[in-house]
Design the sequence.
């Protein structure tokens, strides 16, 4: 059997990445950026997954005082829901911007892009307000591990969003300088992907932070820890 | 995201000034060399630290300044630098950066700007790490595993500033490794040249590719534990810190779980072993194939073994924790998974050995290092079967048996690959050969010396001699002969350490004065040897990307005049070149 | 060729070394001789693979070494030696070898995790850098303990309200006695950082983790005095965290046992001797004895025997008299005036004035 035959029977014969993308056209570069972003999202998923596992394990130790207990500030987490609304709007506007850019509607694209950034800033501001409120009630980072995890998880999520906003800034500047919509669209595409991802992540975190301790106990048992 | 466009612009501009060419370069080859030089620099520091430690172990009290604090600080920094800042950085940042684009036929990494950021973040992390030598209290002496509560409480050297700098440095390193890793994986997935199918990639690329995936998914565990420990240390949270006293005084900590840290640490720490080992596996396969003029035995099996080892490495972590006080029933599961991972690893060893079989073995310096690697890895891997089997680990854990095992399997073995690979690829990187004679001397001292260090060390472990002891002369169960053996090991270690000067000299001297090598001195078939220029220039391939027609192991093809067929030679070209039999 | 010869030499050397080296394991003194058997099985199986694979490498290096340029256009290396069948055979053999290690290992491990009925509980308490022990009293039960309850007069942190704890025997020294041939369950607790209770002759060991309790069991089978080591790095004096375990005959053990104070009696003791006893307890609970001996033997720090009033030479060559002021300064700011030939390994102990007085009184009382 020759090497060539061996390769043919290998099941990997489809040249995949190799065949079509070896010329560095803008489409190819956009595809690569998308792949890079997907891998980055896998890394961030791994990061938050491990934080959540630590959260669950730590929550089973006796000194844990959960923030959503009836007498605690998160028993009625309406400020978090308002922030969630802002993040949902940001995601919607980015999606809108993405669709508009595909349709080559330059004006609509930029308007919705700016709105998406605005609502993201509202979200971050709202999260900081929740922090402020908790601290004014005496729930500091090191008071209880439940608080520590609350600040840690929301803070890290916020930082990831802030990182996204830096890319968003660059895109807005490019739009401001009059970059043609076609070139802009790949950046918007990436932003939209990242924002949807962070929104999904936020829903997971929100669910985690506002569930009852019984849910944690059940989850921990389910994982066999 | 937006950087894509910058990268696009950048690629059109050839760098001209010294600064843009060698310092702020976005060329993967320059970045690879930057990575390697920083890593080797850090490695030399770690080597000196180990010599200092060995002096204390072999000849207690011989070094004036070596008190218990200094000893533990040297031990910690030696371990951390060698594992993270030398081996991980060198294999992924150094070899990964250099080899991947050349071997898959790309012009560069897909995100050159991020790649440049990666090396500078790495540089920053090394600076932060080394800064800890100069802060009050010195660097951390917590052991490289940094177990809490001890790492951040009184009684451990460097708990003031050293541990903080260590954790910050690790976090920066993880960011650097992630930025690099995004590049390596995306480049392999998306930037392969025409005809380069996944199963036409050299095993080097497969090893680095899989190791990078492990790094991307495992480093977050270190990040998570690092962040939480940093908060425990700086603002007094109790993620890992339990209710405890410290120096006879009550502390404010309550309820934290030190075992949780260990789980997180080893969830990173075990894949880390393979982050170092898998690139080494791949590179050694290629070196063996080239220098025995024969295709790699069971290539497909080798690829699957790399993938299997990578996947399995995520479910064996608690074998580092058999005596940690975790639920003892975990031992059954983790002992089984650990010994299962031995099967694909053994397959790799068989296939290396069988690659030599029926070959045409050229006794070059890279081949010598490759065979030495097989031997050392075999010894280290087999002792792993002792430690993986939970009941045998119970008497042996935390003894010198463990020290000997992991130094052989993930210290000496990968370093032998590093040496072999540098001797092998040096001509491509510089256009010059390394000196053979010095190389031989370097090889023999390193190979025999390291075996003399680590083989007898196992027996100290069987005797029960505990590791991480500043001084064990006060213990009656340790006979004088064991201390004599330690003195012998120290002498061997000093000789091996000093012999590395040969290597450094050889590298520097050959880079400027070595014999011109030509583009392909080993007559290798894989793509990196077929670049139009040697050393390859910015953009690697000139006007047109190469087209790949075959896998990288077409050696000694019957009926072909040369005993190798480069990957970019088509069947037609080959037909024209054939000799009648 | 040279490489092949050297590999053979290494192989022969290693094999000889395996059988005639002077560093074999300490003689086993517990039921865990079964672990030694697994080590032997593992050594044999891995040894076969080690020798076999290395010999094959040697064979290949000799037989298939490069023999100069080919004459008839034939390449020396074969092109087609891949063999699926061979690979599957090797995989099979390896799997069998692995199972042969793992199966007996897991059988013994199963034994290790199941504490036999009727094993006596013995609590080991570790702290930087000393050992202490607690035995259940006549009720056979250990009382509840908590780190937050630790104080001057309660170094174990026992709950004074728990009736089970009242008759617990407290052994506040580094020496533990155990009766021969009686299975014991070692219950391990740490008050500060990780430690590991390790006696080489027993073979078994386990980490002690603050905030939780871990355990292992064994049956002592040989009378004698054995060293206890800490096998989990616990800070700068880790290597000096030494204790002794003495395996006694049943009679000797009973004699020793009857001398040990119970928790209840330690609570009422409190005699008035000018603070000497308080100082001794403080020294014990703060772990001073890990580095300072009271019998004049050399340790990490200067001995307390005859220390008071002695003239010490400092690092800079000046001298100082170890009076009350100097001793107090050395406790609260140890690095201020370092005695020559000692390393600056001590941390500052922020003790209260009355505690300092008591401790100095105690140091004075060690002649």
Sequence:
């Amino acid at each position: 059997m020759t090497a060539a035959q061996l390769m043919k029977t290998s099941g990997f014969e489809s040249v995949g990445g190799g065949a079509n993308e070896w010329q560095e056209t803008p489409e190819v570069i956009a595809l690569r950026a998308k792949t890079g972003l997907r891998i980055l999202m896998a890394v961030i998923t791994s990061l938050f997954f491990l934080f959540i596992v630590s959260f669950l394990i730590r929550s089973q130790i006796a000194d844990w005082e959960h923030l959503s207990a009836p007498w605690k500030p998160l028993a009625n987490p309406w400020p978090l829901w308002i922030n969630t609304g802002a993040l949902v709007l940001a995601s919607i506007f980015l999606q809108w911007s993405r669709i508009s850019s595909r349709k080559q509607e330059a004006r609509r694209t930029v308007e919705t892009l700016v709105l998406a950034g605005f609502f993201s800033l509202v979200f971050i501001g709202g999260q900081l307000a929740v922090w402020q409120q908790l601290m004014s009630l005496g729930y500091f980072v090191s008071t209880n591990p439940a608080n520590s995890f609350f600040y840690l998880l929301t803070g890290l999520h916020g930082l990831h969003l802030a990182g996204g906003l830096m890319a968003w800034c660059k895109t807005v500047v490019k739009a401001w300088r009059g970059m043609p919509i076609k070139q802009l669209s790949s950046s918007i595409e990436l932003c939209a992907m990242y924002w949807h991802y962070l929104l999904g992540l936020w829903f997971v975190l929100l669910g985690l932070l506002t569930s009852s301790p019984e849910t944690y106990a059940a989850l921990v048992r389910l994982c066999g820890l | 995201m937006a950087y894509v466009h910058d990268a696009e612009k950048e690629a059109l501009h050839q760098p001209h000034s010294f600064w843009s060419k060698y310092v702020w370069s976005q060329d993967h080859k320059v970045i690879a060399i930057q990575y390697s030089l920083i890593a080797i620099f850090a490695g030399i520091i770690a080597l000196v630290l180990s010599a200092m430690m060995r002096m204390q172990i072999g000849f207690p009290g011989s070094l004036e300044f070596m008190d218990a604090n200094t000893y533990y600080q040297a031990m910690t920094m030696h371990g951390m630098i060698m594992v993270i800042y030398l081996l991980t950085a060198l294999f992924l940042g150094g070899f990964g950066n250099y080899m991947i684009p050349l071997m898959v036929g790309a012009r560069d990494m897909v995100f050159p700007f991020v790649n440049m950021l990666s090396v500078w973040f790495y540089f920053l992390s090394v600076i932060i790490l080394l800064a800890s030598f100069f802060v009050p209290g010195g660097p951390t002496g917590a052991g490289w595993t940094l177990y809490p509560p001890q790492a951040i409480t009184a009684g451990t050297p460097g708990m003031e500033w050293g541990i903080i700098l260590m954790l910050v440095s690790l976090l920066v390193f993880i960011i650097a490794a992630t930025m690099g890793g995004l590049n390596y994986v995306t480049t392999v997935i998306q930037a392969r040249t025409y005809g380069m199918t996944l199963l036409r990639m050299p095993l080097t690329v497969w090893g680095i590719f899989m190791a990078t995936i492990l790094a991307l998914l495992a480093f977050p565990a270190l990040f998570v534990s690092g962040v939480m420990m940093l908060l425990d240390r700086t603002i007094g949270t109790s993620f890992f810190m339990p209710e405890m006293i410290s120096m006879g005084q009550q502390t404010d900590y309550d309820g934290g779980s030190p075992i949780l840290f260990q789980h997180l640490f080893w969830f990173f720490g075990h894949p880390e072993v393979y982050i170092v080992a898998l690139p080494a596996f791949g590179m050694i396969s290629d070196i063996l194939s080239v220098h025995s003029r024969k295709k790699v035995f069971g290539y497909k099996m080798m690829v699957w073994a790399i993938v299997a080892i990578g996947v399995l490495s995520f479910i064996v972590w608690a074998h580092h924790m058999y005596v940690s006080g975790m639920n003892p029933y975990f031992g059954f599961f983790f002992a089984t998974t650990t010994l299962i991972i031995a099967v694909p690893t053994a397959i790799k060893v068989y296939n290396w050995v069988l690659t030599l079989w029926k070959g045409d073995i050229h006794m070059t310096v890279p081949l010598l290092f490759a065979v030495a690697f097989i031997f050392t890895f075999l010894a280290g891997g087999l002792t792993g079967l002792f430690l993986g089997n939970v009941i045998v680990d119970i008497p042996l854990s935390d003894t010198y048996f463990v020290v000997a095992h992991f130094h052989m399997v993930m210290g000496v073995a990968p370093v032998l690959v590093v040496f072999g690979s540098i001797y092998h690829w040096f001509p491509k990187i510089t256009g010059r050969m390394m000196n053979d004679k010095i190389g031989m001397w370097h090889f023999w001292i390193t190979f025999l010396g390291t075996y003399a260090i680590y083989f007898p060390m196992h027996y100290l472990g069987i005797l029960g001699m505990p590791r991480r002891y500043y001084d064990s002369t006060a213990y009656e169960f340790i006979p004088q002969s064991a201390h004599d053996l330690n003195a012998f090991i120290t002498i061997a270690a000093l000789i091996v350490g000093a012999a590395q000067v040969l290597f450094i000299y050889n590298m520097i001297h050959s880079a400027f004065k070595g014999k011109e090598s030509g583009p392909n001195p080993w007559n290798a078939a894989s793509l990196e040897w077929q670049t139009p220029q040697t050393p390859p220039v910015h953009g690697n391939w000139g006007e047109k990307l190469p087209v790949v027609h075959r896998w990288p192991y077409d050696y000694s093809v019957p009926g072909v005049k040369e005993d190798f067929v480069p990957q970019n030679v088509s069947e037609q070209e080959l037909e024209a070149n054939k000799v009648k039999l | 060729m040279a490489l092949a010869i050297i590999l053979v030499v290494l192989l022969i050397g290693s094999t000889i070394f395996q059988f005639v080296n002077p560093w074999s394991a300490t003689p086993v003194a517990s039921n865990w001789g079964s672990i030694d058997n697994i080590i032997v099985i593992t050594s044999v199986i891995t040894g076969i693979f080690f020798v076999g694979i290395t010999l094959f490498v040697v064979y290949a290096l000799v037989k298939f070494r490069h023999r100069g340029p080919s004459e008839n256009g034939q390449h020396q290396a074969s092109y087609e030696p891949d063999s699926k069948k061979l690979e599957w055979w090797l995989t099979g053999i390896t799997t069998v070898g692995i199972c042969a290690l793992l199966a007996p290992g897991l059988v013994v491990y199963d034994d290790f995790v199941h504490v036999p009925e009727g094993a006596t509980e013995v609590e080991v308490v570790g702290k930087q850098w000393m050992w202490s022990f607690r035995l259940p009293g006549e009720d056979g039960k250990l009382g509840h303990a908590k780190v937050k309850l630790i104080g001057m007069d309660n170094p174990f942190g026992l709950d004074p309200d728990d009736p089970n704890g009242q008759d617990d025997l407290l052994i506040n020294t580094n020496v533990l006695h155990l009766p021969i041939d009686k299975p014991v369950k070692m219950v391990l607790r740490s008050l500060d950082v990780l430690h590991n209770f390790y006696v080489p002759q027993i073979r078994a060991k386990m980490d002690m983790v603050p905030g939780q309790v871990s355990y292992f069991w064994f049956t002592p089978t040989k009378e004698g005095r054995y060293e206890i080591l800490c096998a989990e790095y616990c800070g700068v004096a880790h290597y000096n965290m030494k204790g002794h375990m003495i395996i006694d005959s049943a009679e000797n053990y009973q004699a020793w046992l009857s001398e040990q104070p119970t928790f209840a009696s330690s609570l009422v003791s409190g005699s008035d001797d000018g603070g000497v006893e308080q100082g001794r307890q403080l020294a014990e609970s703060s772990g001073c004895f890990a580095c300072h001996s009271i019998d004049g033997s050399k340790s990490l720090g200067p001995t307390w025997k005859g220390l008071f009033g002695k003239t010490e030479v400092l690092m800079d060559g000046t001298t100082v008299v170890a009076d009350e002021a100097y001793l107090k300064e050395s406790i609260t700011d140890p690095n201020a005036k370092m005695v020559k030939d000692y390393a600056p390994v001590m941390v500052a102990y922020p003790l209260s004035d009355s505690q300092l007085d008591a401790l100095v009184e105690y140091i004075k009382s060690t002649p």
Observations:
- Chain A has one domain: 27-60+67-222.
